[in-house]
Specification:
Elements: H1 2-33, E1 43-56, E2 68-83, E3 86-101, E4 107-124, E5 127-137, E6 142-143, E7 151-153, E8 159-169, E9 175-188, H2 192-196, E10 206-207, E11 213-215, E12 220-237, E13 240-251, E14 260-270, E15 275-285, E16 291-297, E17 300-307, E18 311-323
Antiparallel strand pairs: 1-2, 1-18, 2-3, 3-4, 4-5, 5-8, 6-7, 8-9, 9-12, 10-11, 12-13, 13-14, 14-15, 15-18, 16-17
């Protein structure tokens, strides 16, 4: 299983490279035939690389405070090909950030791997029959606190792989709305400790009356349902750009009313060619993800249970950015 998904990840990562290679070969062939290049290949390639820093230092500061150092990095890249009725769209979203407070251990603040590739053929005006695949995971383990005591997640734990066939509606190049009534969504939990706990919806391990494990927890969960994905990119002003992505999934086989929601938004404020500020927000709701619930009493946090919760993250950073 791990080997197959390493191959899958490598294949998805290789898509943009393959796209460029194909473009160069066809371009050279058509030029040799004397065909104008712009009538053959219609690529739109671009993206954003951003590195934001934050730092705070205190010495004999009466008001108090903690020394802090933080960094957030992000890569957003797309390689889209259109030729007549055929289209091939590829997107990569990578992000990683950390923060260090005084003598505490390094803590990550953002961690994202998101890869999407879709192939479409236009069947109606602005509408294409499309096959889409999407992969999401993270780079490093995630914990409940700075003491690194309770593991919450890890690389490929979870990982989500979506295979969907449906219609993609794109009236303008900035907007894509994809709807699939036939979608397979696979959740992978390769860390056995998390799998044994039944994390992210997989079946937990089985124990006998003595507390001895008799069967490992499952490492995967397969769901069949409906999937929606909407992407919108809008230039608010010359130096302000908005990107927002919304994903919805409903599982036909179990609790279809519990819709999985993943909504992320980025606003980029461009100062000049190399300096910008970015605001990133993300909402997630997944009924299969149980979040630890703590109760504070007398300054002590006590775990009182676990349950699904609306997850929210926002990151504001100022630093170096370059549009590809």
């Amino acid at each position: 299983m791990k080997k197959s998904f390493k191959l899958l990840l490598s294949a998805i990562l290789f898509l943009p490279t393959l796209a460029f290679s194909q473009s160069d070969v066809v371009k050279a062939a058509k030029l040799a035939e004397g065909t104008p290049d712009d009538t053959v290949q219609k690529w739109h390639v671009g993206g954003l690389v951003s590195i934001n820093f934050s730092q705070a230092s205190f010495s004999n500061w009466a008001a108090g405070g903690q020394n802090a150092l933080g960094l957030t990095s992000m890569l957003s890249f797309h390689a889209n090909y259109r030729n007549g009725k055929f289209s091939w769209l590829n997107d990569i979203e990578l992000g990683y950030g950390f923060q260090k407070l005084d003598e505490q251990t390094l803590q990550k603040t953002t961690d994202q791997i998101a890869l999407t590739s879709s192939v479409g053929y236009k069947v109606f005006k602005c509408t294409s029959l499309t096959f889409l695949t999407n992969f999401q995971s993270q780079f490093q383990p995630g914990y409940t606190n700075t003491a690194d005591t309770v593991l919450l997640s890890d690389f490929m734990s979870p990982a989500y792989w979506v295979l969907a066939l449906g219609l993609n509606y794109s009236p303008v190049k900035e907007l894509h709305v994809f709807l699939s009534p036939i979608t397979v969504r696979c959740t992978f939990v390769e860390n056995q400790t998390l799998a044994d706990q039944g994390a992210f919806g997989v079946d937990p391990a089985v124990y006998n009356s003595l507390g001895v494990k008799t069967q490992n927890g499952k490492n995967e969960l397969t769901e069949l349902g409906a999937y929606f994905k909407g992407d919108y990119r809008f230039k608010i002003m010359d130096n302000i750009a908005l990107t927002t992505d919304l994903e919805l999934f409903s599982n036909y086989l179990k609790d279809p009313q519990n819709i999985v929601i993943n909504w992320s938004t980025m606003i980029q404020f461009k100062v000049n060619k190399y300096i910008s500020a970015t605001l990133n927000t993300q909402f997630i709701y997944d009924n299969t993800i149980n979040i630890p619930i703590y109760k504070d009493e007398g300054g002590v946090s006590t775990l009182i249970g676990k349950g699904p919760r609306l997850q929210f993250k926002d990151i504001l950073g100022v630093g170096l950015a370059y549009n590809l």
